[in-house]
Amino acid sequence: MTKLPPKTIAAIATLLFAVAAPWILTSYDLNLLGRFLALSLTAMGLVLLWGEGGVLSLGQGVFFGLGGYALAMHLKLNGLGDGELPDFMMWSGVTALPWWWSMFRSGVVSIISVFLLPGLIAAAFAWLMFRRRIGGVYFALITQALALAFATLLISQQGTTGGFNGLTDYHELLGFNLNDDAVTVAIYFITLGFVVGSFFGLRWLLASRFGKLLRASRDGSNRLRFLGYDPAPYKVVAFTIAAVMTGVSGAMFTLHAGVVSPALVGVVPSIEMVIWAAIGGRAYLMGGIVGTLLVNFAKDKISTALPELWLYALGLLFIIAVTALPKGIVGEFDGEPRFKPSKLGDMFARWRAGKAAV
Fold this sequence. Notes:
- The protein is mostly helical.
- The chain has a domain at about 40-265.
- It contains 17 helices and four strands.
- Strands 1-4 form a two-stranded antiparallel sheet. A two-stranded antiparallel sheet has the order 2-3.
- A hairpin with a 2-residue loop joins strand 2 and strand 3 (about 175).
- The longest helix has 27 residues, at about 180-205.
């Protein structure tokens, strides 16, 4: 009988606990677990983009907000009749529903927008950046500026975005009462399904030829070009997939938390997203999940007991991750990444050997 590796046994046990969580945890803790599992989708996207693709984005909050607001706009319009406006619009003196709000009356359109809106914007932005070979610190700073601009835009447009308070106070989605216990559990399992599906989907993608070329673009873009491959499309695809996952993360978090606001999409939240991946292990998909759960549960406990100490604790965690645990928590237990850097030297040697044979 084949003996399962310890890490496989641990993964199975963790999954079984996650499935049994609605019958084990209190409603409050289950809600927290659902929120943090939703956030782990963002961290796994960063593992793909940053850990495997070598592209550091400090603006993932933009796509988190796009997904969250796309769904929240439908939730605010749900139940309103023709000519009726959301409460915050009436308070701000808006007299007619903006045209770009109208299409979110449809729940199907809103759900599609959660995937499509972040994906299209990310693909267009990434293509403009990577085809000009913009990367490294310049790319990170540009994405950070986008996060700042997006949060500022949301705050400044009080009458149409809810301003600093964001969008909240909604109760129904596709005919289901969001306050019902059964619906809450169903949303939790949908979130868990996204996490498990994304984990195995990304494992398959990274084990494919695409994953090898993505890592090759990280390790040596110029040498990859010399071999006849353009790194830009692979980085664009990785950035787009990460953005879509972050958009879904924002939408599911909105359902669990009951609110989406500029405070969740700006520069600071975008940096925190990177910290989740770094602490868990940016070379490991499981690291994205572990880092997100650890940091956010610590945030909940520490900020509740000692609110003024949380930012210091977060900084300390990041310093420890960078200095003492450079491979992250999962990396210290796993030894080597599941997907090692591509050996471009061997690829180049084989290519030269083939040319010499001709």
